[in-house]
Design brief:
By secondary structure, this protein is α/β, with parallel strands linked by helices. The protein is about 45% helix and about 20% strand. Helix 5 links the parallel strand 3 and strand 4. Helix 5 packs across helix 9.
């Protein structure tokens, strides 16, 4: 009986051999270590052979694995050449894009619609996470494009935006200011605590969360004050009653993309840049 070897299994197999471990391979393929292990197991079951010697964190191919590696590389090369010859410059996805929650909430729906109209055959895998996680995923080649927050003077910053204080004005009367913060690492958290301490404003952390929705709830319900950029909430603290709150720095809106990207990825990056500029305007 003919056995058809799945291309994605072969690609994962080659990535594991090249990386020397499943964990390191997962940093280059958009799959978890457990998913990669399952693919190897299924490949071994299909072929009825062991493909790796297993021991510790490092794994090495068996003689059967070395034999398969030769064929796998040839199959993948033929597959990629066939796809390229038939699609031309059309990107064969998925496009792996990462966004911080701030950007996802403000312009993701419009961006997706614009991109889909211009690229009807493209598919996007969207990851929503904090800036530090997105940068790590991009650096390990698990994202094609990342839109994140940075210092205002970052080389990757498309534009910078002012940070603002948000909350109920009544909280300004409290002797110790209650603030709500996102979990570390967070540029807004760092900025808020730094300027409050520099300005000798007494404060207490009333809420710490990993959820932007929870942060909004804390502000809208009058639990605490926080800092973010325009669009986070309509409860901006900008009246005379907040004279004792120190000014905040600006934050960069950055896009990470590969040098000499595929034209489709370049178009998506341009849409992201335009959305960021419109957000500030």
């Amino acid at each position: 009986m003919t056995v058809n070897l799945p291309i994605d299994f072969l690609r994962s197999f080659v990535a594991i051999v090249n990386a020397g471990s499943i964990l390191r391979a997962s940093e280059h393929i958009f799959l978890t270590p457990s998913a990669l292990s399952l693919q190897v197991k299924r490949l071994e079951e299909m072929l009825q052979v062991s493909l790796f010697y297993r021991g510790g964190r490092q794994i090495a191919p068996t003689p059967a694995g070395k034999a398969l590696l030769i064929f796998a590389r040839e199959i993948l090369d033929l597959n990629d050449r066939a796809v390229l010859s038939l699609t031309g410059d059309r990107f064969v996805g998925p496009i792996r894009i990462g966004l911080v929650q701030d950007f996802a909430d403000t312009f993701l729906s419009g961006l997706l619609a614009s991109f889909a109209r211009a690229n009807p055959d493209a598919r996007m895998d969207v990851r929503i996470a904090g800036s530090a996680e997105l940068i790590g995923l991009f650096n390990s080649e698990r994202l094609d494009i990342a839109a994140c927050l940075s210092g205002a003077d970052s080389n990757d910053a498309v534009v910078s935006a002012p940070m603002l204080w948000f909350g109920h004005a009544a909280l300004m009367k409290e002797a110790v200011l209650p603030i709500a913060l996102m979990e570390q690492p967070c540029v807004f958290r760092d900025a808020a605590t730094r300027v409050l301490e520099a300005g000798k404003v007494p404060y207490r952390v009333a809420m710490e969360t990993s959820s932007l929705s929870a942060l909004r709830a804390a502000v809208s319900s009058g639990i605490a004050v926080t800092c973010r950029t325009a669009g986070f909430s309509d409860q901006v603290l900008n009246g005379p009653e907040i004279f004792h709150l120190p000014p905040l720095p600006r934050v960069g809106h950055s896009i990470l993309s590969r040098p000499n990207p595929h034209p489709t990825l370049e178009r998506l990056a341009e849409l992201l840049r335009a959305s960021m500029l419109d957000l500030i305007d």
